[in-house]
Amino acid sequence: MQLYSGKMYMLTSPLHGSSADGTVNPTQNDPGLDRTAGNPFNTDPVNIDELVQAFRHRGGVIIFLHNPKAGGSTVRELIQSQAYEVRNGDKLHQINPQNAKNNIAYWGTHTVTSWKASKLRIDALLSQQAQSANGTIFILEDHVFPDIINVLIPSLKKWRAKSKANNIPLLVVAQIREPVSHFVSYFNYYHVRTQKAAPTQESLVKFARENENLQCQWFVNRVCPNDNIIIMRQLLQLVLHEIDWIFDTATFAQELLPLLTYMTKLQLRDLGIVQPVGYYDYHGEKLKVIDLSQETLRILREQSVLDRELYDNVTRHYRDFSKWRDYLTAKKAFTKCSWYPENQTCVYPGGEAVSPGNLPAYLL
After folding, report:
1. Residue 150: CA count within 13 A, CB half-sphere
2. Which of 326, 319, 336 has its CA nearest to residue 250?
3. Are the CB atoms for 119 and 125 separated by under 8 Å?
4. Which of 178, 279, 314, 359 has its CB surrounded by the most CB atoms within 10 Å?
């Protein structure tokens, strides 16, 4: 069983090892996976503040590439629960009057129809002059659709040009997880939930042998076999070039969540770890990495060679969050409140209770 059907991708522009028409071909001089494009996170505090204040006062667009089983459901819940407008695919489009002050729209694309609607919305927002944007922050979550390479990247190139021309910020972020931990979590959710059977190391090994490099599969939307690693590297390189920052699941609670909530003037709530709907439908035990045999771990590592290379590349090139952490610390963006849904109240460590619509002074 492979989770994605393979196809040959036609790229919008040639890259290393591609032909003139953009078709990716293997090369004799494969440079390996690397990230060379600049991004707004490797910058100085003045530019950091300029970007943050642009979002807080003019609004903008955030593209969140939701890599499955890497913490994205926690991000979604944190923002959706405080967004004024929420849309999930074609099934739900709701307005939350209690969150009207926040002026946040959070849309998840799961179908062609919802993608087209999101695209029109982003086109319109980025086509405005900055002073006319009314502070709206539109957050697009790409979880199931669209295909990043063939559909999203061509749109991103146009959006970045509009963003620059009209001085409205655009930010693209993603998450990645340590490969063995990701394999086990993915197996626990997608395999165990559908099979309705207690997980075993034998069934995990079978699942792993049928699905190499799960995170690579998601980013490039095709199978990622280890024996085709040069082409896969080139496709991943194309995706990495378009992402402003990739967060590690191990540290996203200290990096991505404080950043997003501060930029959008939302509350950093203590939600714990949020799992997707249906995760607990099967009430059996879940496998844990710590309980796996050395042989099982060896097989998982064999089946995630490219994911490991991707993870090592990301943790190397996106490691220095220190300037942002210093900035967010100065802005008190790490102060969490504990969320009590029964009375719709956040309580901060000092005992301060905050109800919706009444943001703490340092977030105004």
Report:
1. 12
2. 319
3. no
4. 314
Give the position of tokens 């790490």.
334
Secondary structure (DSSP) of 152-218? IHHHHHHHHHHHHHHT--EEEEEEE--HHHHHHHHIIIIIHHHHTS---HHHHHHHHHH---HHHHH
Q: What pLDDT digit, counting tens, does each position of 131-176 carry?
A: 665 788 999 999 877 789 888 999 999 999 999 999 899 999 999 9
- Distance in angstroms (rounded) separating the CA atoms of residues 33 and 29: 12
Q: Is 144 in a helix, a strand, or coil?
A: coil
Report the candidate in 305, 67, 276, 286 with the shortest Cα–Cα distance to residue 180: 305
Chain centroid to Cα 35, Å, comes to 17
Amino acid 81 reads: S
Given a contact cutoff of 8 angstroms between Cβ atoms, the answer to whether 240 and 149 are in contact is no
CB contact set of 252 (below 8 Å; sequence gap of 6+): 71, 74, 75, 175
Rounded Cα gap, residues 40 and 36, in angstroms:
13
Instruction: Give the model confidence (pLDDT) of 297-336 as tens digits.
Output: 999 999 999 999 999 988 887 777 888 888 888 888 888 8
Alpha helices (runs of H) in 14-152, residue ranges in sequence order: 45-58, 72-80, 112-127
Residue ranges of domains in the chain, CATH in brackets = 45-336 (3.40.50)
**Pairing between β-strand 137-142 and β-strand 104-109 as defined by DSSP bridges:** parallel
Sign of CA dihedral 253, 173, 111, 226: negative
For residues 289-317, one letter each, b for 16 or more C-beta atoms within 10 angstroms of the residue's C-beta and e for the rest, the string is eeebeeebeebbeebbbbbebbbebbeeb
Closest listed residue to residue 107, CA positions, set 136, 128, 132:
136
Q: Can you tell me the distance from the alpha carbon of 319 to that of 342, in angstroms, rounded to the nearest whole number?
A: 39
